[in-house]
């Protein structure tokens, strides 16, 4: 689960920050620094020694961290790749198998079973593939790497707490390359804060217990701001012409205003009379959705626009929504063209983040601004026409 971590988990004492570097240097020296800090935090010396005794750097973790090319795919391609008939069938089967657990999820946390089923499917294929990276090695490797030590260093100490509780084995606990554990892939701090013993065995074991994993995931979503019983996403139809600059996740308007512009549910009625944002993942000629307030919580789980939209859409499918209308969008850009576009946008003063060929939130914002400036439909979908005009 790729989550924004609690602020408290990201802070270090001034004395600790001065005592040792927070990243880099020799790996063995870095591990020793972690052990020293753990003892300074009050952990028993023998426990700390056992916990860190076999820690090693994992080059495969760093390689995986730098190669996330799947997010260069457009929404339709990505969704069709992730949502197979088999995943649909197994999702519906698991909904029945764990009906009592999902009833508890909905009662205690107000999260639809479709939402948890979609995450369960995408993160680990319903628990079948939970990752084979040694979790402690992954966390320490990423904490040592100076790209995002503030994210991963606190997770090492959270894993130590889980170890003391009997819910983490530094030698045998495995998971994703970024340190997430279990069927719905939660980081150690998230497990500490939101772990639920769903099966009543006295432990929170997200790798082997579906009730633990599903209830913990639901509690996490509620903690992140999920509103009980509210929808998250609904497919819509949009008129041939409107002010496309009003679309995008950052613009939220009342339902009445969207209706006045000619926007309607593709099937049935509105899911709720709530404000929302019109999302056009492939421009005004492609698929169209209305994102309700709960949809924003998805970005606390994973910050990839394409991933969260696909997860949100799959959740609606598992709850009975039809296959989306792909429309006939203008062809998108290749990875190389996207990088070229990002460099051009940067040259015009936009902050797109890393030039990585991925159409992320910052790149979409910049594209929409330039489209409006150039008199093109400002739908945040970059085309070769835009690239040429820039």
From TrEMBL:
Name of the protein: Lytic murein transglycosylase
Q: Which PANTHER family match?
A: LYTIC MUREIN TRANSGLYCOSYLASE (PTHR30163:SF8), MEMBRANE-BOUND LYTIC MUREIN TRANSGLYCOSYLASE B (PTHR30163)
Molecular function (GO) terms for this protein are: peptidoglycan lytic transglycosylase activity
UniProt keywords (A-Z) are: Signal
Q: Name one GO biological process term.
A: peptidoglycan catabolic process
Q: Which residues form the Peptidoglycan binding-like domain?
A: 334-390
* Signal peptide boundaries: 1-19
Highest classification ranks of the organism: Bacteria, Pseudomonadati, Pseudomonadota, Alphaproteobacteria, Rhodobacterales
Checking NCBIfam families in the record gives: MltB_2
Q: Which Pfam families does the protein's record reference? A: PG_binding_1, SLT_2
**Boundaries of every Transglycosylase SLT domain copy:** 27-315
């Amino acid at each position: 689960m790729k989550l924004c971590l609690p602020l408290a988990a990201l802070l270090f004492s001034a004395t600790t920050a001065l005592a040792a570097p927070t990243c880099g240097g020799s790996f063995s020296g870095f591990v020793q620094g972690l052990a020293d800090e753990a003892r300074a935090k009050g952990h028993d010396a023998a426990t700390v020694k056992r916990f860190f005794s076999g820690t090693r750097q994992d080059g495969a973790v760093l390689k995986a961290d730098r190669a996330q090319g799947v997010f260069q795919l457009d929404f339709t391609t990505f969704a069709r790749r992730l949502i197979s008939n088999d995943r649909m069938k197994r999702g519906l089967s698991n909904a029945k198998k764990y009906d009592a657990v999902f009833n508890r999820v909905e009662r205690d946390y107000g999260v639809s079973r479709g939402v948890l089923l979609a995450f369960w499917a995408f993160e680990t294929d319903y628990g079948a593939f939970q990752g084979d990276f040694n979790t402690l090695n992954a966390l320490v490797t990423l904490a040592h790497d100076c790209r995002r030590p503030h994210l991963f260093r606190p997770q090492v100490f959270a894993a130590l707490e889980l170890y003391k509780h009997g819910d983490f084995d530094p030698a045998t606990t495995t998971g994703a390359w970024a340190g997430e554990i279990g069927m719905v892939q939660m980081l150690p701090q998230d497990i500490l804060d939101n772990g639920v013993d769903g099966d009543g065995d006295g432990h929170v074991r997200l790798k082997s217990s579906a009730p633990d994993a599903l209830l913990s995931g639901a509690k996490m979503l509620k903690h992140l701001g999920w509103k009980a019983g509210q929808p998250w996403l609904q497919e819509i139809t949009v008129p041939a012409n409107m002010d496309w600059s009003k679309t995008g996740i950052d613009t939220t308007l009342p339902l009445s205003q969207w209706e006045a512009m000619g926007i309607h549910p593709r099937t049935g009625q509105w899911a709720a009379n709530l404000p929302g944002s019109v999302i056009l993942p492939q421009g005004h000629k492609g698929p169209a959705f209305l994102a309700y307030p709960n949809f924003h919580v998805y970005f606390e789980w994973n910050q990839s626009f394409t991933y969260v939209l696909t997860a949100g859409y799959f959740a609606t499918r598992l709850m009975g929504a039809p296959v989306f209308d792909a429309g006939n969008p203008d062809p998108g850009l290749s990875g190389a063209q996207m990088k070229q576009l990002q460099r051009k946008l940067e040259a015009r003063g936009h902050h797109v983040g890393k030039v990585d060929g991925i159409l992320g939130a910052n790149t979409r914002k910049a594209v929409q601004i330039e489209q409006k400036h150039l008199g093109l439909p400002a739908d945040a979908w970059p085309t070769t026409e835009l690239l040429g005009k820039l």
